[in-house]
């Protein structure tokens, strides 16, 4: 087992460059299955999840090679139809092969990915949407099995603007016969990115970035080269890290237009936020905090609301802010699980249902803690920077799943941090 050992007390100062979004590139990789031939993705982050998704594609008969930030995927004329159980278990995003393979092959078997440490994560919206398009879907021995000789267009209302369901239905609809309308669709920049790639491939889609997506099915698509949208969650993480540690970080290629509420919250907390180039906001921004942050209330919601993936950063900000704040989680039912680890660091947090009341302290107190998911892991490392003494964050692999070059970026910003291998039982029970 590997852990991050952080010594608190140093503000993060310097610059980082943000690469492509994990939650976009994994779906762009799945979309490559829609067409035979070579898809090239650029601005690809070097993270564990990209490695896992590459392996999912290989087991379906594709070739996938990452050189620098360019991922080349060669898809055969007849890709496989069964996703590997162990890989899907390790990474839920592999469920995104369901829509494209169903559209392309008329049959697919994907292991049920189950829930995880942030909560139960159903597939009912994915399934109901694909069934409306003519698929027959059954659950067989832990697999979701979907069949359809040819999908047809349908009008689909999502109960909740689910990112994954919107993507699976969208990727199935581009090759279906007729028109599909997805109402209450997710609006995340990741959805806009995948719509852009699908349109470059020849798909007919309107409404990307709004709650209503209209897709006119086409007979076939062509493979393309596509650049991945920058990672707004990584950008937002660095922005919050600057404020929490009372530092000064330039977030190059962070897209402020994808982070409006998050940056506004930091502004209310007392941070100074400047665009690097007001004429080209996508160049990035700078966040400076020269005093203890003021407490601000934060509510997570689907985009354009404050991202649930930033919840650990919101709690950590509150934990060191001046005054009490209320943080409300509206997307996942167990995202507060990591708060137990924050309590070990001396944070004063009390939860009631999906609300957390956080009473800020000037300093937290370093302790051994455990990453329960990607974002909680990073939130705990950042909390450790604002803690007295040493904090050890176990299960470092979670952070590898979503943050490229995390250790070197942290060190580049002045953090005292190292990565250490330990025998599992060397680490105290957490
Ligand atoms: N939901 C259902 N039924 C469904 C689908 C979703 O009940 O059929 C519920 C979920 O249980 C959850 C809510 O709807 O309560 C939202 O889930 P959504 O489908 O939007 O999430 P996802 O597609 O599974 C993606 C990201 C998550 C991110 C969420 C919300 C990927 C690979 N994952 O998950 O990212 O938190 O959207 O923005 O894109 C992360 O990167 O650390 C991460 C967890």
Structure description:
30% of the residues lie in helices and 26% in strands. It is α/β, with parallel strands linked by helices and 430 residues long. The strands form 7 sheets. A 4-stranded mixed β-sheet has the order 22-24-1-25. Strands 2-14-16-15 form a 4-stranded mixed β-sheet, covered by helices on one side. A 4-stranded mixed β-sheet has the order 4-5-3-13. The mean pLDDT is 95. Uridine-diphosphate-2(N-acetylglucosaminyl) butyric acid is lined by residues 22-23, 26, 93, 118-126, 160, 162-165, 308-309, 331-332, 374-375, 402. The site of uridine-diphosphate-2(N-acetylglucosaminyl) butyric acid has 25 residues, from helix 1, helix 5, helix 6 and helix 12.
Please tag this protein with its features:
430 residues, alpha/beta, UDP-n-acetylglucosamine1-carboxyvinyl-transferase, Chain, 4-stranded mixed beta sheet, 14 helices, binds uridine-diphosphate-2(N-acetylglucosaminyl) butyric acid, cell shape, Enolpyruvate_Tfrase_dom, cell cycle
* CATH fold-type name of the largest domain: UDP-n-acetylglucosamine1-carboxyvinyl-transferase, Chain
What small molecules does this complex bind?
uridine-diphosphate-2(N-acetylglucosaminyl) butyric acid
Structural class: alpha/beta
What's the CATH C level of the largest domain?
Alpha Beta
Biggest sheet character: 4 strands, mixed
Could you state the oligomeric state of the chains shown? single chain
When the domains are counted, the total is 2
Mean pLDDT: 95
Strand order of the largest sheet: 22-24-1-25
């Amino acid at each position: 087992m590997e852990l991050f050992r952080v010594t608190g007390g140093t503000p993060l100062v310097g610059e980082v460059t943000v690469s492509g979004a994990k939650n976009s590139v994994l779906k762009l990789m799945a979309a490559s299955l829609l067409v035979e031939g070579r898809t090239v993705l650029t601005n690809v982050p070097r993270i564990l999840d990209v490695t896992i998704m590459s392996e999912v594609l290989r087991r379906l008969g594709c070739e996938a090679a990452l050189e620098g930030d360019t991922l080349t995927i060669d898809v055969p004329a007849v890709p496989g139809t069964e996703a590997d159980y162990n890989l899907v278990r390790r990474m839920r995003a592999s469920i995104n092969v369901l829509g494209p393979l169903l559209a392309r092959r008329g049959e697919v078997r994907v292991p049920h990915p189950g829930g995880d440490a942030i909560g139960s994560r159903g597939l009912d919206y994915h399934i109901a949407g694909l069934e409306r398009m003519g698929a027959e879907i059954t659950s067989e021995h832990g697999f979701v099995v979907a069949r359809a000789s040819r999908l047809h267009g349908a009008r689909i209302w999502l109960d909740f603007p689910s990112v994954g369901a919107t993507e699976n239905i969208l990727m199935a609809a581009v090759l279906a016969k007729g028109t599909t309308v997805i109402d209450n669709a997710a609006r995340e920049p990741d959805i806009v990115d995948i719509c852009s790639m699908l349109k470059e491939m020849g798909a007919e889609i309107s409404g990307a970035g709004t709650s209503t997506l209209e897709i006119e099915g086409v007979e076939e698509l062509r493979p393309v080269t596509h650049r991945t949208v920058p990672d707004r969650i990584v950008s937002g993480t660095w922005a919050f890290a600057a404020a929490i540690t009372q530092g000064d970080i330039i977030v190059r290629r962070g897209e402020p237009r994808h982070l409006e509420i998050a940056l506004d919250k930091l502004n209310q907390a007392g941070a100074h936020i400047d665009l690097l180039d007001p004429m080209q906001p996508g160049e990035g921004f700078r966040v400076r905090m020269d005093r203890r942050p003021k407490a601000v209330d934060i509510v997570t919601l689907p985009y354009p609301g404050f991202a649930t993936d930033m919840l650990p950063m919101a709690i950590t900000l509150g934990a060191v802010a001046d005054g009490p704040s209320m943080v409300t989680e509206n997307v996942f039912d167990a995202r507060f699980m990591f708060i137990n680890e924050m309590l070990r660091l001396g944070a004063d947090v009390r939860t009631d249902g999906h609300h957390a009341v956080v009473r800020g302290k000037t300093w937290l107190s370093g302790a051994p803690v455990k990453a329960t998911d990607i974002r909680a892991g990073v939130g705990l490392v950042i909390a450790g920077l604002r803690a007295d003494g040493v904090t050890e964050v176990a299960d470092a692999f979670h952070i590898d799943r979503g943050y490229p070059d995390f250790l070197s970026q942290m060190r580049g910003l002045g953090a005292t941090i190292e990565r250490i291998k330990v025998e599992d039982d060397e680490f105290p029970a957490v």
